[in-house]
Design a protein that fits this description.
The strands form 2 sheets. The chain has an 8-stranded mixed sheet, sandwiched between helices. It has a 4-stranded antiparallel sheet with strand order 2-3-1-4. α10 packs antiparallel against α13. By secondary structure, it is an alpha/beta fold. Helices cover 38% and strands 17% of the residues. The protein contains 13 helices and 12 strands. The longest helix is centred in the last third of the chain and has 21 residues. The protein folds into 2 domains: 74 residues, Metallocarboxypeptidase-like (Alpha-Beta Plaits); 292 residues, Zn peptidases (Aminopeptidase). Belongs to the peptidase M14 family. It holds the Pfam family Propep_M14. One of its GO terms (molecular function) is metallocarboxypeptidase activity.
Length: 415
């Protein structure tokens, strides 16, 4: 009986049956380096049988670092584990709940949409609709599908004239990465309102396509129930909900860096495009792919600028030298803004293997020449819970990076 009750409780939490928001008082976050096969296999087993632990990245290979959230009742166990495995660890966060509590200092006082706080899906969509209504000659909105829970999947296009090269940006495909949609909305606002000549050059001479919230069900759940939620919200079985949408695209699906275990944060889905959100985005992209010269995926955290491909044994793209040259120029422009240092390079080489991702799909299937993943601030002090007072600095340095990116891409003949 106790076992059955426990299963029901776990299922209720996963399905959102509990209205109370999860708290993480005194939970610690540790960065762990995986150096040996024994360490890797043990951590993979722990991810499958977490008993309170949660992983911010899945253990997919040796020579990688990941972050583990450790609940108070597991402190002694974690210490024993690190000794037994000779794990190299670093305490990132002493009390995770305190970081969450300080994430949104303006949440009780905001009156209008802005960039000193993080917003809900409905608030972001309302702002998008308002922007289109206020700028009907250059902005147009569209609904390209429905999420599993019935929310609109919305895109917005900025275009001053026909025939412009296209730039596509998708954000918040991972639910807990709130800084991604906050940065995307800030960028669109700047493109529409800025008087800076470099920004207006981007606005007037390029068509911009934005998906501000690629995973609206997940983003909503991360705000109402569990700040750590990453996946979609379509149930898989009685205990597990959601797939990792950035492992669910139908290009080299399940060829490294993804899980077949439904409760894993990197579960790739029962099949490629099992999630309505990913299939709808792919279908939408297919209608504009011939117009897209540059594609960006916005994520957090780690301060990386990543190039394709990510799957196991993947070849480097034929234009890899150009990809790295552009990345170097972009990273330098980002650092010149506020001193934020980005690591750049092939995603499988400088971070870890992935498969079924948006960038690999757009480049591999549609031949988009320039596809990049931004992993925004920070390097672990707050992780996914980046304080809202960093939204604008993060966005400003990203914009400066994009200005430099497009200029270099133009020099190399891509736009």
């Amino acid at each position: 009986m106790w076992f059955k009750l426990t299963l029901l409780l776990v299922a209720a939490i996963a399905w959102g049956g509990s209205a109370e928001q999860a708290r993480f008082d005194n939970y610690r976050v540790y960065e762990v380096s995986i150096e040996t096969e024994r360490q890797l296999k043990t951590l993979q087993h722990l991810e499958l049988n977490p008993d309170g632990y949660s992983f911010w990245e899945s253990p997919v290979q040796t020579n990688m670092r990941l972050s583990i959230v450790v609940p108070p009742h597991k402190f002694a166990h974690f210490e024993e584990l690190t000794v037994a495995l000779a794990l190299k660890t670093r305490l990132q966060i002493e009390d995770f709940q305190k970081v969450i509590d300080s994430e949104r200092p303006m949440r009780s006082t905001r009156a209008t949409f802005g960039w000193t706080d993080y917003y809900t899906v409905d608030e972001i969509y309302a702002w998008m609709d308002q922007m289109v209504a206020q700028n009907p000659t250059i902005l147009s909105g569209s609904v390209y599908g429905k999420s599993f829970e019935g929310r609109d999947l919305k895109a917005i296009k900025l275009s001053h004239k026909a025939g412009n090269p296209g730039i596509f940006i998708e954000a918040n495909i991972h639910a807990r990465e709130w800084i991604s949609s906050a940065t995307a909305t800030w960028l669109l606002n700047e493109l529409v309102t800025s008087s800076n000549a470099a920004v207006q050059n981007l606005a007037q001479n390029y068509d911009w396509y934005f998906i501000m919230v690629a995973n609206p069900d997940g983003l909503t759940y991360s705000k109402t129930t569990n700040r750590q939620w990453r996946k979609t919200r379509q149930p898989v079985n009685a205990l597990c909900v959601g797939a990792d949408p950035n492992r669910n695209f139908d290009y080299m699906w399940m060829t490294g860096g993804a899980s077949s275990v439904p409760c894993s944060d990197t579960f790739a889905g029962l099949t490629a495009f099992s999630e309505p959100e990913t299939k709808a985005m792919a279908d939408y992209y297919a209608t504009i792919a011939d117009k897209i010269n540059i594609q960006f995926s916005f994520h957090s955290y780690g301060q990386y600028l990543l190039t394709p491909f990510g799957f196991s044994g993947a070849p480097l793209p034929s234009n890899n030298a150009d990809l790295q040259r552009i990345a170097a120029v972009t990273a330098a422009a980002i650092e010149a803004t506020y001193g934020t240092r980005y690591t750049y390079g092939n995603s499988a080489s400088v971070l870890y293997t992935t498969s079924g991702s948006t960038v690999d799909y757009f480049v591999g299937v549609h031949g988009t020449k320039l596809g990049y993943t931004f992993e925004f601030r920070d390097t672990g002090a707050t992780g996914f819970v980046l304080p809202a007072n960093q939204i604008i600095p993060n966005a400003e340095e990203t914009l400066n990076g994009i200005i430099a990116f497009v200029a270099e891409a133009k020099t190399l003949g891509y736009v």
